[in-house]
Amino acid sequence: MDNWTTSHDRVTSHNRVLAQRHAEGWMFLIEAARDIRTTGAIAPSSRALARALTDPVRTQPGRPLNILEAGAGTGAVTRTLIPQLSPGSRLDIAEANPRFADRLHRLAHTHPHLTDHGRQVRIHTRRVEDLDTDRRYDVIVSGLPFANFSPGQVATIMDRYLELLHPGGTLTYFAYLGTRRARALLASRAQARRHQAVEEVLADYRRRYATGCRTVWANLPPARVWQLSRPAPVVCGPAPAEAEARR
């Protein structure tokens, strides 16, 4: 009987997860139909992509971290982040879409890992560039669709990320593979120029701050995940002559 109960519970849990993913897929399609520019995708991030984006958190187990997730959507990445929250960690989420934000509120208050009724997680229904906080973050995870924004918007968001990061903190973001050629074929000339300008803005930030990247094939479509780090301040010691004089 115990074995049957355990098996039944596993099947029920599996079916619940499948139903949840099915519902999220439909929600993404609906929101994409409303405004593909700000939704930026037609399907939630895969578990493989979520793991790649949250890798800087997973590599610091047990350490209390301040984490910011921007553009969380239905919470595909959020659900990967929450079990990694060690005691004392804090997760802030900036999600401008109110329907997605409502779903994230429910997730924060019902997730079994959060025993304090979601007080470790705070949802901000606003754009990250409008986020009013004095908090600085060890890790920022970005799910924003940069390819859909203007070059000026992308630069503003990236500058805001760097402002919100602790020195030595890590930012992760992703870009879909294979979409540049499709845009070149389907976009207007003005859109193509905007896409190219956005890529040049991001490339400039990568040249200055990138610390690594990886390709995630198990996603629709496949994606490249970038890690950027805000440089830690350089602590200069005394000049040799000054050091000698102090001895």
Structure explained in plain terms:
The structure is a single chain. This protein has 247 residues and is an alpha/beta fold. The protein has one domain: Vaccinia Virus protein VP39 (Rossmann fold, 3-Layer(aba) Sandwich), CATH 3.40.50. Helix content is 47%, strand content 19%. It is built from 10 helices and 7 strands. It has a 7-stranded mixed sheet. The termini are far apart.
Multimerization state: single chain
Strand order of the largest sheet: 3-2-1-4-5-7-6
Mean pLDDT metric: 82
What percentage of residues falls in helices of 4 or more residues?
40-55%
Q: Give the count of helical stretches.
A: 10
Order of helices and strands: HHHHEHEHEEHEHHEEH
Largest sheet: 7 strands, mixed
Give unreliable regions as ranges: 4-19, 35-40
Structural class label: alpha/beta
C-alpha Rg (nearest Å): 21 Å
CATH fold-level assignment: Rossmann fold
**N- to C-terminal separation?**
78 Å
Q: How many distinct folded domains? A: 1
List the SSEs and their pairings.
Elements: H1 2-34, H2 36-39, H3 47-53, H4 55-58, E1 66-70, H5 78-81, E2 90-94, H6 98-110, E3 121-124, E4 137-142, H7 151-164, E5 165-176, H8 179-186, H9 189-209, E6 210-216, E7 223-229, H10 240-246
Parallel strand pairs: 1-2, 1-4, 2-3, 4-5
Antiparallel strand pairs: 5-7, 6-7
Helix pairs in contact: 7-9
Short overview:
By secondary structure, the chain is α/β, with parallel strands linked by helices.
List its salient traits:
247 residues, alpha/beta, Rossmann fold, 47% helix, 19% strand, globular
